[in-house]
């Protein structure tokens, strides 16, 4: 019975805290970032555009993060000796914010991503991978062509192609794409994430991840080449038969 009374009293206190005119506005819980046992919470002031990632034990806008109740997916905030629960389901993460993003919003995210540096590394890896794959596909190279000269030519072709993918030149186009694809709040969430330790690790390790993905995919693609060549030969033979059939003179009709 005492336990039940405590629960009722606690609920009443929480209601009175929310209803009181002099209680500071609650922050908005926009997201939870879990890295192993560690959790960080994206909090923003009501109506604010900036977000901070805070851990239990730290404070934000005068509220202290006292505990996180995983079973309720709720954060306990304490201020002036009073506790309140902040749930994802009742915060902005559960609402659709369709505010259109601006180019400035997108540019801020691309800056956090180190766009030019990251894309430059990825493109360089892609270029090397494509050169290597082309050389393997051609085997010993074209008949009568020097292998070194062929390799140099392939490198020149790739340089010409990838020159059009200059990261500095692409940044403006990418900013436009980001601003058209994501909402303002979504870009703010991405910017907040890339400002965290996990977000910075994602940026720094993306080229390494891309390289390992290439190492995984290219051998599998090469293993399929004999089947591709067989399909190509069968298709060419089929087309040749159709062409020959169309060119053959029609047989004269039998007379009665």
Brief digest:
With 256 residues, the chain is of the alpha+beta class. It has eight helices and seven strands, in the order H-E-E-E-E-E-E-E-H-H-H-H-H-H-H.
Describe, in plain words, how this protein is organized in 3D.
The protein is α+β, with helices and mostly antiparallel strands and about 260 residues long. The chain folds into two domains: about 30-95, Roll (SH3 type barrels); about 105-245, no CATH class. It is about 55% helix and about 15% strand. It has helices at about 1-20, 105-115, 115-140, 145-165, 165-180, 185-195, 195-225, 225-245; strands at about 30-35, 40-45, 50-55, 60, 65-70, 75-80, 80-85. The strands form two sheets. A four-stranded antiparallel sheet has the order 4-5-6-7. The chain has a three-stranded antiparallel sheet with strand order 1-2-3, with helices on one face. A hairpin with a 4-residue loop joins strand 5 and strand 6 (about 75-80). The N and C termini lie far apart (about 110 Å). Mean pLDDT is about 75; it is low at about 1-20 and about 90-95.
């Amino acid at each position: 019975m005492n336990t039940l009374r405590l629960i009722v009293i606690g609920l009443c206190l929480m209601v009175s805290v929310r209803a009181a005119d002099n209680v500071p506005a609650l922050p908005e819980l926009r997201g939870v970032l879990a890295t192993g046992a560690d959790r960080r919470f994206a909090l923003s002031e009501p109506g604010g555009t900036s977000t901070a990632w805070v851990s239990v034990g730290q404070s934000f806008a005068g509220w202290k993060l006292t505990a996180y109740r995983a079973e309720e997916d709720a954060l306990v905030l304490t201020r002036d000796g009073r506790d309140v629960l902040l749930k994802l389901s009742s915060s902005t993460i559960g609402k659709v914010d369709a505010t259109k993003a601006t180019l400035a919003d997108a540019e801020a995210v691309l800056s956090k991503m180190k766009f030019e540096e990251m894309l430059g590394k990825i493109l360089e890896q892609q270029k090397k991978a494509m050169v290597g794959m082309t050389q393997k596909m051609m085997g010993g190279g074209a008949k009568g062509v020097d292998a070194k000269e062929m390799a140099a030519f392939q490198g020149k072709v790739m340089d010409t192609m990838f020159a059009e993918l200059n990261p500095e030149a692409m940044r403006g186009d990418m900013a436009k794409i980001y601003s058209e694809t994501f909402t303002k709040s979504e870009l703010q969430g991405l910017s907040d994430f890339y400002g965290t330790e996990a977000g910075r690790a994602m940026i720094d390790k993306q080229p390494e991840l891309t390289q390992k993905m290439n190492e995984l995919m290219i051998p599998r693609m090469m293993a399929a080449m004999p089947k591709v060549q067989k399909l190509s030969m069968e298709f060419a033979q089929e087309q040749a038969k159709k062409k020959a059939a169309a060119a053959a003179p029609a047989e004269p009709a039998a007379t009665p």
